[in-house]
Structures are given as structure tokens and as C-alpha cells.
Specification:
It contains 15 helices and 20 strands. It is of the alpha+beta class. The protein has three domains: about 250 residues, no CATH class; about 120 residues, Alpha-Beta Plaits (2-Layer Sandwich), CATH 3.30.70; about 120 residues, Alpha-Beta Plaits (2-Layer Sandwich). The radius of gyration is 35 Å and the shape is elongated. Zinc ion binds next to helix 4. The site of zinc ion (ZN) has 8 residues, from helix 4.
């Protein structure tokens, strides 16, 4: 309750500044003035000084953090760039990252105290809608090196002081503290781990990289570790090391990093089941020699509608198993997932229903979806498991070369869990290796067609992976037994529908 009241208080703009300034003042007052003075003289920026002392939070977001903030706490400030507009002194530790100074894409050096505004403008321009954002910051290794050098130096110089602590806030975290709160206000959304990411990438100049390489090889040649995270050499050698380190840090090229920023959304998934009513629609887009096979694909119909609704860059369609282009998918439908990449928006539950409705009311009625919904990334695991189809039910329109007899009906329906040997069908030999597999036909039922003695509907339930067309006509003896061999006549399959799929794992 109290925190909500505090939030309400802070949301009044007038209070934000005074609250912040008070906090900033308190923070500054608590710092040891001699050490601060020393760090300022080393050319270290205000935010870096905060992080050296392990300070966290919104104080980093205070506007215009110039060394003058230390004026009250520090007796004598060294001459700084404060009132000098000609040249801004770049921080020797963060190389300007925490001063919002950087090189832009064409190399121009910019200092932009409105970095949050620059970022929020990009997000809005790119058309992203989100309730949350999270910052991904990438910092060049030289900054880490600088931090380590300074930390070693501080430990030697101030290690015995009561205020000294090893903990230093990373440049990455300090940048996040500086940007999170202003961005929350500008974007009107919360900073928390979600699918929408803002990526800030800093890269060091080539000179800085070269310098770092030299320093690293120089360090390797010495025996003591410069970095105090490693072993602890004697205090004398430490003293030497630390002064070397600090000297090195100050000799580094004082050049701002190149800065690039972008945003994206991590993939999310739609799950559901599809029905295919056409014998001229493939499951995925199917092109042979620049020629499209079939009039459309399930992938394009479903994925295309989702892509448009989410304003995404692209999508990937994954289905649990497949059926041939000329086989309809009926009954409860086949489970599928659509992976949506870099969407500008994540649809609400209501808009998901709208997408489903839109697909289902398309004029051509080739494809329908059921139970369309957003599923977490676990949907993908479910799908992989789901690929282990267990049983499938079909309805096949069959022709035989002689009239159907009553005993045929009884014979066929009496067979339970019939074992069938299938050699790889002739029609798929070009893409599948020649193998012999045993499959099980769980049950069969013949449904006669009025006034037609040589045509009938064969309903059958089989183990997943059974080649149904071959089971009917025998594939020149490569499938045995077959409907043809059992009835002692020629059998042809005219049409086939999948009417049910029992999955290992049920997705919907
Ligand atoms: Zn700095």
C-alpha cells in the first residue's frame, strides 16, 4: 500500500526532480571526499565514480551529472570541462558510455543527454507495441579491463579504509540504471524481462583494441596478476602492479566508442490444429522448377494471416506430421505451431480469435484452424513430442476390379491389429532410402456406397507412418498383405482423407 502511494507521489512530475536531487545529494554526501577528489582528477565521470563505490539505482538517471555535483562534498574540484563548451572531457574509465558520448554510424562524435529520448523515438518509429521492455547492453572488453585496473588500484590505495568495498557496479548495469527509468516514462511500459528487447551495442575503436592487446600480452609476461580476482602476490609487487595498471588506463586512447542501437522481439508461438478441405493444397509452400504445386499451402494461409496481424518480419510453420497434397485433413485436425519472428505486436486473446475467424471465413475455404492460441516456447517441445504420431484414422474411396461381396465386409472388419510389411513405396523411392517396415492396421470397416458394387469407402485406423495408398493397391507386391491381395482382385485408391490423429502428446 505504502509503495503504491510512493509511486503515485513520484508520478507527479514536480516531485520526481526534488526526490532525485535529494537522493543525489545524500549519495554524494556519503562519499569519502578525498577519494572522490582523486577519482575526479583521474578523469573519471560521475556515474563511474558512483559505480566504483557500489552505488545502485535511479541516482544514475539524474539529469546532467557533471562533476559539479561533488562541489558540496569536495573542497577543491580540479579544473574540469564543466563550463568549457569546446571540448568535453571523456571519462577515462567508461570512454564516454556513461556520459552518453559516442560515435554514431558515420563516425561523428555526439554527446546526447537525451539518450533515452533517442531510443524511445526509434522504438516508436519502428512501430513496436509492448507492455514491457528489457535492455541488452554490449560493452567492449577494454571497459572491463579498465574496471579491473582501477579496482586493483583502489584496493591498494584505499583497501584499509572503512568505506572500501570490493563490489563495483558494472558499466552495463550503470547504463541500465541510467536509462531504465526515463525509458519507462517515455515508452509508458515496464522494464522487465519480456519478449521486447532494446539492444545497445558499444564497440571500441581499433586503436583501443590494439592497446588492449598490448596490455594483455604485457600482463602475461609479468608474474603477478594485475586483476585482484586472481592470486594475491606480495604487497610490494602489488604496489608496482597497481601503479602500472593505473598508468596504463590513463594512457589508453581517449576515444568514444561506436554506438549502435536497435530493437527486436524474441520469437513467440501460435499453436492450434488445422483442417485441410482441398486435394490441391500442400502443407508447405511447394515449388518445383519455379512452378507452384497446388493452388495454395496450409503454411501460407495460416502463417500469412498471422504475419499480417502481428506485423512480423517472418514466420516459420511447423506441423506434427504431414499428409500428401491430395489427402484432406479432417476430423479434429493436425496440430501445428507458427513461430512468429520479430513481431511489432503480440496480439491479445481477442485478436487471436479474430485471426482464427479471418482464416475460417476465407472465401476459398481451403483450410480451417481450430483452437488457435498463443503458446509459450514450451509449445515447441510439445510439438517435437507430438511428432511421434501414434495412430491415424483414414477414410479412403476404393475401387476394386470385381463386385464387392458380403463376405468381404465381414472378412475385412474381422481383422484386428493386422501386421503389414511395407517396402519403401515406388513413388517416394527418389527421396527415401529403401527399407522394409512392419506397420499395424488396427482395424478396418467397409462402408458400401448405394447402387455401386465396385466402389466403397474403407475406414481404417493404422499405426502412424503406414503408407495407406500402397496398403490398398499393393505397390506391385512391395506392400503385403494389401486390400488387393486380401480380396484377390485389383484395388485402386481414388481419394483419401485423414479423419483423426492420435498423438503421443496432445497439443491444443
Ligand atoms: Zn565513466
Amino acid at each position: 500500500m505504502l509503495s503504491r502511494m510512493e509511486e503515485a507521489k513520484e508520478s507527479e512530475l514536480g516531485n520526481v526532480t526534488s526526490e532525485n536531487e535529494k537522493t543525489l545529494e545524500e549519495v554524494v554526501q556519503a562519499l569519502p571526499s578525498d577519494a572522490v577528489n582523486h577519482l575526479v582528477s583521474l578523469g573519471i565521470c560521475v556515474r563511474c565514480i558512483f559505480r566504483v563505490f557500489g552505488i545502485e539505482g535511479r541516482v544514475y538517471a539524474s539529469p546532467s551529472l557533471s562533476p559539479s555535483v561533488f562541489a558540496s562534498a569536495v573542497e577543491q574540484l580540479p579544473p574540469t570541462e564543466d563550463n568549457n563548451n569546446n571540448k568535453h572531457q571523456l571519462c577515462t574509465l567508461c570512454l564516454g558510455i556513461l556520459q552518453f558520448t559516442f560515435r554514431d554510424h558515420d563516425g561523428t562524435i555526439l554527446r546526447n543527454d537525451d539518450l533515452p529520448l533517442l531510443i524511445s523515438d526509434m522504438v516508436k518509429r519502428d512501430g513496436y507495441h509492448s507492455d514491457t521492455f528489457s535492455l541488452e547492453v554490449s560493452i567492449p572488453p577494454i571497459i572491463l579491463h579498465n574496471d579491473n585496473s582501477l579496482r586493483s588500484y583502489m584496493k591498494i590505495k584505499y583497501g584499509s579504509q572503512p568505506w572500501f568495498q570490493e563490489r563495483c557496479i558494472s558499466t552495463k548495469d550503470a547504463l541500465k540504471f541510467s536509462l531504465q527509468h526515463p525509458l519507462q516514462n517515455l515508452l509508458e511500459c515496464k522494464s522487465t524481462m519480456g519478449s521486447f528487447r532494446i539492444r545497445l551495442t558499444y564497440t571500441a575503436s581499433k586503436d583501443a583494441d590494439k592497446c588492449l592487446d598490448n596490455a594483455e600480452s604485457c600482463k602475461r609476461r609479468k608474474t603477478g596478476e594485475c586483476n585482484l580476482d586472481g592470486q594475491k602476490p606480495s604487497s610490494i609487487s602489488l604496489e608496482n602492479e597497481s601503479s602500472d595498471c593505473c598508468k596504463f588506463m590513463l594512457e589508453m586512447p581517449n576515444e568514444p566508442c561506436h554506438f549502435a542501437y536497435s530493437c527486436y522481439r524474441t520469437p513467440f508461438y501460435f499453436g492450434g490444429r488445422y483442417l485441410k478441405y482441398s486435394r490441391n493444397v500442400s502443407q508447405t509452400r511447394w515449388i518445383i522448377d519455379d512452378e507452384r504445386m497446388g493452388e495454395a499451402s496450409v503454411e501460407e494461409i495460416i502463417g500469412g494471416n498471422i504475419l499480417q496481424a502481428c506485423q512480423a518480419d517472418s514466420f516459420k510453420f511447423h506441423a506434427a506430421g504431414r499428409e500428401d497434397i491430395d489427402v484432406r485433413m479432417l476430423g479434429p485436425g493436425r496440430p501445428f505451431l507458427v513461430e512468429v519472428q520479430n513481431a511489432r505486436q503480440v496480439p491479445s486473446e481477442l485478436s487471436v480469435k479474430d485471426i482464427e475467424k479471418k482464416i475460417n471465413t476465407m472465401e476459398n475455404k481451403l483450410v480451417r484452424v481450430k483452437n488457435l492460441k498463443l503458446v509459450g516456447s514450451h509449445g515447441w517441445d510439445l510439438m517435437r513430442e507430438g511428432e511421434a504420431e501414434k495412430q491415424k484414422q483414414y477414410a479412403a474411396l476404393v475401387w476394386i476390379s470385381r463386385p464387392l461381396k458380403d463376405e468381404d465386409l465381414q472378412h475385412v472388419s474381422s481383422l484386428k491389429d493386422l501386421k503389414v510389411l511395407q517396402r519403401t513405396p515406388v513413388r517416394v523411392l527418389h527421396r527415401r532410402s529403401p527399407l522394409e517396415r512392419e506397420k499395424i492396421i488396427h482395424w478396418m470397416k467397409i462402408e458400401t456406397i448405394a447402387e455401386s458394387s465396385q466402389y466403397f469407402l474403407l475406414h481404417l485406423c493404422t499405426q502412424a507412418g503406414t503408407y495407406i495408398k500402397e496398403f490398398v493397391h499393393g505397390d506391385l507386391g512391395r506392400t503385403h498383405p494389401s486390400i488387393g491381395s486380401m480380396l484377390g482382385c485389383r484395388a485402386e485408391i481414388l481419394q483419401l482423407d485423414v479423419t483423426d490423429i492420435k498423438m503421443e502428446c496432445f497439443l491444443t
